[in-house]
Amino acid sequence: MLALAAMLPAARAAGDMAVGGKLYAENCAECHSVKEGRNKKGPSLFGSFQRKAAALPDFAYSDALKASGIAWTQEQLDAYLTLPKKAVPGGKMKFDGLPDAKERADLIAYLSTIK
Fold first, then answer.
1. Which CATH number fits domain 2-111: 1.10.760.10, 2.130.10.10, 3.40.50.2300, 3.30.420.40?
2. Fewest CB within a 10 Å sphere: which of 8, 34, 51, 109?
């Protein structure tokens, strides 16, 4: 039973990167680029998966995100995308969050391919 329970989060988190790409276009593309070195209102998401938060030298991150000490792992992205203002109080992210766990898993699957 424990082995099955341990497998469930990984299966859910795998996500569908094609659906995630559509979710990115609908929810993220206005403020974030996936092109390396191209910041918009928000920083480029190129290579952001597994990267330390606030790591790009050419973007003005909030003090809160700089001090957060987080890295964009699957788990951290899931928490952040659920409710950014709760995950990093005082951050500049204008997005209110993505409450659907399946949609977050799909979006994270897509973001993990942008490298």
1. 1.10.760.10
2. 8
